[in-house]
Design brief:
The protein has helices at residues 33-45, 89-95, 99-116, 128-132, 147-155, 170-177, 183-194, 237-245, 264-278, 302-306, 312-324, 330-353, 372-375, 383-395, 400-413, 418-428, 434-445, 462-468, 489-500, 502-505, 512-519, 524-532; strands at 4-10, 15-21, 63-66, 83-88, 120-125, 139-142, 159-161, 198-199, 202-203. The protein is α/β, with parallel strands linked by helices. The strands form three sheets. It has a five-stranded parallel beta sheet with strand order 5-4-3-6-7, with helices on both faces. The radius of gyration is 24 Å and the shape is globular. The N and C termini lie far apart (51 Å).
Length: 535
């Protein structure tokens, strides 16, 4: 990871330094809000541009089309020609996403148009196809991040450039993992190939995985972790216009103040604040949950990463430098890096490796529809679920344990249709895209693939939630009860899930002990009856 330079980023709370790549293509920056809006309007006026040609040769210049998740400089690093940006109203209406997510997508596109100035050709239209009919130049695209988008651009005969925004290639994934792609195999190979957190041929500290050091419950009686706040953006007139335009678009959730980066400068500021002020506390409490502290010490960088504003190598490098310079402990740096170089890369490659019928897999034959209160993120039967759904409704974000062990576990126990749940996760989360959610929800969360991604179903009773959070303290249910009026929905639901799926899980060696415990329960019928109240 060479070719880096110190870049200083100012925030309201502090001035931080982080090692990042230079951005040769983003030499023009418009800081004043009115200037940004004017630059965007200028780009919009170019939508009737015809026949852009090289002045020396007279040949039509190729135009690069960037999607809304390809907003960073690494998507233009080898190209200095005109850039096509399309705002599709049909796509917004069709996907019915969280309002905050729709805001981020439109704001990111419009801010990039403002920054590119005369290079940008910004077209607001109903469909992508209609927009492309207004462009006479040959168009090429960087490899899209979804199968439908790739199939669409291929059907148009557009040149598709290799994928960007990831550290490893599909060829490396295939070479490293073989016929059975395991995360740990892939992660170790990626570490060796990149040299990240390596001392020669061995991992720094002698261990590849420091998960065991990153599972501490929150401090007793603490309302927050007490770490410095995340970096927050300042909205400008572009955001004001976006919010007004979204009034006519059907969405989920609420569009409060914008909480995530939509420009390169903002993304670097968010990265800098996390690395300097929050990374040291990240690893230890990575899996903990607190009602009064939704952000904990998490980076909130999944949004700028998935919008393409940050390139993963620079994020990984910044975390490794913090460890090497003694500014972050190894468990924090390794835990964070594993989320990006390990899990994020793994999910990306799995998306393209998995068979085309994977989204419809339903190994446990779960058919129950999502209830309306879940879809709308309204009041729910249990406090832990209610807190988590409220956070998603208000912000479009929740951290990985809330997603897996609260939302996902609740759905798994109640047999919600995995395809419906996957669609909800994709629409409800600001960082949710097809490639992100497919393996995470269908595989990891719902075990609908029968064990391709996860070696066992990930669900638990209320004891785990009590240990890892403060949610149970004010809940009307008791995490240690599986029967009666005070039975915890997760505790009763856990045993009901095992009983309902005993046949399907019997061949899984990791489920032998839980199933044996379930068979010994004298009050299993009463526990299942308690669980039925929360279907």
């Amino acid at each position: 990871m060479s070719g880096t330079a110190r870049e200083q980023t100012k925030t309201e709370s502090a001035t931080v330094k982080v090692k990042v790549r230079k951005d040769p293509t983003f030499t023009r920056t418009v800081n004043a809000p009115d200037a940004r809006a004017q630059a965007f309007r200028s780009a919009l006026c170019q939508t009737r541009m015809r026949g852009i040609r090289d002045l020396d040769t007279g040949k039509a210049l190729v135009m690069r089309w960037l999607f809304a998740d390809q907003l960073g400089p690494h998507f233009l690093a080898d190209y200095d020609g005109p850039v096509l940006l399309i705002e599709s109203q049909a796509a917004l209406r069709r996907h019915h996403v969280h309002r905050a997510k729709a805001h981020l997508i439109l704001s990111g596109l419009r801010h990039l148009a403002a920054e590119l100035g005369d290079r940008a050709v910004y077209i607001k239209t109903d469909t992508y196809r209609e927009a492309l009919q207004r462009v006479e130049e040959p168009v090429h695209v960087v490899h899209p991040t979804s199968r439908p988008a790739l199939q669409f651009v291929q059907s148009l005969g557009l040149e598709v450039l290799p994928a960007r925004g990831f550290v490893t290639s599909a060829e490396q994934f295939a070479d490293w993992t073989g016929e059975r792609p395991l995360l740990e195999t892939f992660y170790r190979a990626a570490r060796r190939a990149t040299g990240v957190l390596m001392d020669g041929g061995e991992p720094v500290g002698g261990r590849w995985n420091l998960d065991a050091d990153n599972r501490e419950p929150p401090p007793r009686k603490a309302r927050t972790l007490g770490v410095p706040a995340p970096w927050w953006p300042n909205e400008d007139v572009v955001d004001e216009h976006v919010r007004a335009d979204l009034e006519s678009v059907p969405t989920l959730g609420r569009d409060g103040p914008r909480r995530f980066a939509v420009t390169r400068d903002e993304a670097l500021a968010a990265l800098g604040v996390f690395i300097e002020q929050r990374l040291p506390d990240f690893g230890r409490y990575e899996d903990a949950m607190l009602t009064g502290d939704p952000w904990m010490a998490h980076s909130l960088l999944s949004v700028p990463l998935n919008l393409g504003l940050l390139d993963p190598p620079e994020v990984i490098e910044a975390a490794e430098i913090a460890y090497r310079n003694g500014r972050a402990p190894l468990n924090a740096a390794e835990g964070f890096i594993r989320q990006i170089l390990g899990w994020r890369e793994y999910m990306w490659h799995l998306y393209w490796w998995l068979p085309s019928d994977y989204p419809t897999r339903n190994y446990l034959d779960a058919r129950n529809p999502l209830p309306e209160w879940f879809e709308q993120m309204e009041s729910s039967p249990a406090r832990c679920l209610d807190v988590t759904l409220r956070e998603v409704r208000e912000t479009g974000w929740a951290h990985h344990i809330q997603r897996l062990m609260i939302l996902g576990s609740w759905a798994l126990q109640r047999g919600y249709d995995p395809a419906q749940l996957n669609d909800w996760f994709r629409r409800a989360f600001v960082d949710g895209y097809d490639w992100v959610m497919l393996g995470n929800v269908i595989g990891m969360s719902q075990y609908a693939d029968g064990g391709i991604v996860a070696t066992k179903p990930y669900t638990s009773g209320g004891a785990y939630i009590k240990k890892m959070s403060d949610y149970c303290s004010d809940c009307q249910f008791r995490p240690d009860r599986r029967t009666g009026e005070l039975a915890c929905p997760f505790t009763a639901g856990y045993w009901d899930f095992l009983a309902r799926n005993e046949q399907a899980l019997r061949g899984n060696h990791r489920m032998g002990r839980p199933l044996a415990s379930m068979r010994r329960l004298a009050d299993l019928p009463e526990a299942r009856q308690a669980a039925a109240r929360f279907q």
